[in-house]
Amino acid sequence: MKILVINAGSSSMKYQLIDMTDESVLAKGNCERIGIDGHFKHSTGDGRVFETDVVMTNHTEAFVQIKNALISEEYGVIKNLDEVSAVGHRIVQGGSLFSESVLVNEEVIKGIESLIPLAPLHNAAHVQGIRACLEVFGDKVPEVVVFDTAFHSTMPEKAFIYPVPYEYYEKYSVRRYGFHGTSHRYVSQRCAELMGKDIKDIKMITCHLGNGSSITAVKGGKVIDTSMGLTPLDGIMMGTRTGSLDPSVVTFIAEQEHLSAEEMDTLLNKKSGFLGISGISSDDRDVTAAAESGNHRAQLAIDILEYDILKYIGSYTAVLGGVDAIVFTAGIGENQSSHRSSVCHALSFMGVKIDDKLNEQMIRGKEGKISTEDSTVEVYVIPTNEELVIARDTMALVTK
Ligand code: AMP
To answer: How far is ligand 1, taken at its centre, from the CA of residue 243, in Å?
Structure first.
């Protein structure tokens, strides 16, 4: 069975075609700048690459590009579209409506649409992606939606209710939802496999550290708290996002600079974090290089990131009543061994001990344990694979 995984953004559409017999990626690619001008890149598992500038005015036209590439003689991986058994879509916001993956029907699409106010850019784009897929593939190919928020739906009320007047929860569903759930779910399950234990018996802290970052406390396979909130702005500092702040910082700067709510939103989401503090870049590699050459603000940005990670691990250890395993994943978590080292050495007071050599080697897609045998907590680096989770959920639902 071959499953197409789609991650539709407002002006982009990423895809992977996965062969579920061995879970190998047959082809993947990205349609970028949809509605602006258009750039399309497609590559196959056996190393063929096709790249072109092509105008795509909407997601349906992007889907046509994907379809043509998949069945192309030169760059294709299937003979015709009938080989695609199902399509799985990544959806950012499932709100309180969706606590697990579901098959798409009109009611589900309406549900995702009803959550657009909570994730205006993302959910609107996802709906476009689903409808475009229906147009190109027709209704014989089942579609499944997998939500970033779903894994976090087990959080208790005390972790998800904000201490603003309760009426805003009732009126507008203002609460903590959490994101990157598909990634946290994948690495927590994989961590249990690597530990050779039943996930029900493990207390875990999973650190998804990328351009966007979130940390999650997982007890017995269920999320009990997570750092992102109503939106992916909350929690630890990120590439261009602030993470948690004293809310007065927002009102004070807005007043001083005469900024509208929209301008403030841009400042907090796009101009802050690594970029805002270092003044150099949102990319950890650039900021690390600048810090190494003596740039104080770049070093400060790194110090803040490591301090934030440490604080979350400390508080989640308390919340979990101890911790058996810590997992690092995503671009920074999988590759920047220096941050893992700083954080883990700072945790030595609670018996965390890593093998520095192993830690340095565990980069670029390598998976494994970096803690020593006498460490009280096992520490893992696990490359995330959200597309595979989406494909597995899709297969499970269409073969039910
Ligand atoms: P993500 O959002 O998961 O793609 O992660 C993006 C972040 O990961 C950026 O800040 C990058 O600097 C960092 N990153 C990605 N790949 C690498 C790598 N090979 N080495 C170091 N950092 C990386």
So the answer is: 18
Domain boundary among 116, 147, 178: 147
User: Which domain range does residue 256 map to?
Assistant: 197-386
Is residue 45 in a domain? yes
CATH number of the domain encompassing residue 206: 3.30.420.40
Residues with CB under 6 A from ligand 1: 210-211, 239, 283-285, 330-332, 335-336, 364
Question: CA 57 to CA 36: how far, in whole Å?
Answer: 7
Q: Answer whether 0.90 is exceeded by the pTM.
A: yes
Among 41, 40, 33, CA closest to 57: 33
Burial class (CB within 10 angstroms; exposed 0-12, middle 13-18, buried 19+) of 148: buried
Is the model's pLDDT at 261 over the cut of 90? Answer: yes
Give the mean pLDDT of 8-21.
94
Confirm whether 148 is a catalytic residue.
yes
Last residue of a domain, one of 147, 165, 181: 147
Please compute the mean of the pLDDT values over residues 261-279 and round it to a whole number.
97
Residue 332 CA: nearest ligand 1 atom is 8
Residue nearest to atom 15 of ligand 1 (CA): 331
Residues 23 and 128 in one domain: yes
Q: Is residue 400 part of a domain?
A: no
Whether 249 and 362 map to the same domain: the answer is yes
120, pLDDT greater than 90 = no
Q: Contact at 8 Å (CB) between 114 and 97?
A: yes
Distance 284 CA to ligand 1 centre (A): 7
Shared domain check, 370 and 282: yes
